[in-house]
Amino acid sequence: SISTAMALRSFFCAAPPRSPRRHPPISPHTRILGCVLLLFSACLCPASACTYQASTFTYVCTGETLSAVPTNIPTATSNLVLSNNRIQTIDSTAFTGLSAIVDLDLSFNLITSIVSGALAPLRRLNSLYLHGNTPTITCFPTTWPLSDLPQNTTVYFGPNFNATFSSLSITMPRCPSSTITTTTTTLTTTTPIVTASTCGSCGAGCLDCSSLSLTSVPINIPSNLTTLNVNSNQITSIASNAFAGLSTLNLLYLGNNRLASLLTNGTRANVLFSPLIRLQILYIAFNQISVIAPGALSTLTALTQLDFEANLLGPLLTNASLFSSIFSPLGRLQQLGFGNNQITQISAGVLAARPSLTSLNFNSNRLGNFSIATGAFTGLTALSILFITYNNPTLNCLPLEWPLSELPVTATIYYGSVCCSSSATVSAAPRCPAAPTPAATTTVTSTVLTTTTTTTTTTSTTRTSTS
Questions:
Q1: Could you give the CA distance from residue 289 to residue 119 in angstroms, rounded to a whole number?
Q2: 74: β partners
Q3: Residues with Cβ within 8 Å of residue 114, at least 6 apart in sequence
Q4: Cβ distance 316 to 9 under 8 Å?
Q5: Rounded CA gap, 161 and 261, in Å?
Q6: Which residues pair with 134 in a beta bridge?
Q7: Phi, psi of 251 (to 5 degrees)
């Protein structure tokens, strides 16, 4: 079955939809693409791509399709977050002048190469997050210069957020040299048609089409299937008739592909999933989904588990009406996840009156003391598990400002760090002291793919260059 650590992410304006093509993060073309999302949201697209929090020395630039480490990172930065981009190579000057970095998050990129000397400036590094990069990174290429890092550095690696971690002070798993490959994505104008005969069997009524480098869902799928696994391919979009005739399907796995939206080519928003009247589990984690059309899931009335982990659906949690238009038809949904979705706010009423939910996941987001509004948890009468680890910087208690009293007193909350979570019931959960009013955030514009550098005033010295 699917893990309860699931996720759901919507990303309306902070970045354009991610795609194999590289667009400059702040170019007019990119902003136009991002504003297409106004069809589904009334927000305005900001010009800024990255932020620097001077009070915590934290630089965040996630989900911006960056192909390299930005060049304008303040030298005082101690926490650098560059996850969910398209960085393939860490070059030798990537971290020059950034010796203050303690935590470095490069997870969910496309990293296949770290040039010799690239990590040498990071003399204070404590944690390095590399999970979700190369598809099967259960070991490290021998060419990666991890020996340049301090011996007490903890490195997180693995194909997804269920990351393995190891200290450099012990023997790190190294890949055999024969298994190391560097690939370059080639865009083509035609999509080959693949039939179900290409796939293998995974048991009675189960078709395994995973890890075949497919660019589309296979055709001629047997109509009596109960399980279809299309995980770990290169699918960027799904034809509106891809699941036609699959009325007996119970489990559908579409994870670890390159889907950017749940829009369809049909005349109705719900045409894609309309044949799946018996579907109970939908796993669509580790994609690049930034848009879900209202009504796209409306025919999935039998769905009990929905996993959108590691997508780009964060701002969906700030739009109660849009959220309701997408999820209200799912009256049997019990497990719903938002983990690793860059969520910074959860507004009042977004989750209101969802009595069927028993498990909710907000792991590995950007939720701070003032991120969850009063009324956000109202109506979750059956909730028994809330995952909320690796969020607020204070990990040994739960912010007093979070409205946890709205949850059932017997619900269990998991909190703490990514590797060492704690748990307690709502009635017994330790609460942090009241926090001061949050400091203003300074906006910094990325210069990675631009022709000129935009200078932003911060309290720290900033590396400047043109790119």
A1: 31
A2: 462
A3: 89, 90, 143, 144, 145
A4: yes
A5: 21
A6: none
A7: -130, 130
Cα separation, 413 vs 360, in Å, equals: 10
Report whether 279 contacts 303 (CB < 8 A): yes
Q: Is 7 exposed, middle or buried (CB count within 10 Å of its CB: 0-12, 13-18, 19+)?
A: buried
| CA-to-CA dists, residue 456 to 438, 444, 461, angstroms | 21, 6, 11
What is the C-alpha separation between 144 and 141, in angstroms, rounded? 6
Question: Per-residue pLDDT averaged across 275-296, rounded?
Answer: 91
* Partners of residue 421 on adjacent β-strands: 416
Helix (H) or strand (E) segment spanning residue 274: none
Q: Which two tokens stand for residue 345?
A: 């706010």
How many other C-beta atoms are found inside a 10 Å radius of the C-beta of residue 418?
A: 17
Token pair in block for residue 69:
């480490």
List the helix and strand counts (H, then E) for the chain: 2, 23
- pLDDT at site 426: 93
Task: Take residue 267 and report the two structure tokens written for it.
Answer: 């005349």
Q: CA–CA separation, 294 vs 287, rounded Å?
A: 19
Residue 359: Cβ within 10 Å count: 21
Q: Full-prediction pTM beyond 0.90? A: no
How many CA atoms within 13 Å lie on the side-chain side of 447? 18
How far is C-alpha 75 from the geometric centre of its chain's CA atoms? 27
Cα dihedral 221/222/225/227 (nearest 10): -30
- How far apart are the C-alpha atoms of 388 and 418, rounded to whole Å? 10
Using 50, 70 and 90 to split pLDDT, how confident is the model at 7?
very low
DSSP code for 462: B
Angle (CA) 192-196-202 rounded to 5° is: 135
Spatial separation of the C-alpha atoms in residues 15 and 374, rounded to whole Å: 27
What are the distances in angstroms from CA 384 to CA 130, 163, 345?
A: 32, 25, 22
pLDDT tens digits, one per residue of 167-178 = 555 555 666 543
Full DSSP string of 111-143 = --EE-TTTTTT-TT--EEE-TTSSTT-SSB-TT
Q: For the CA atoms of the chain, what is the radius of gyration?
A: 22
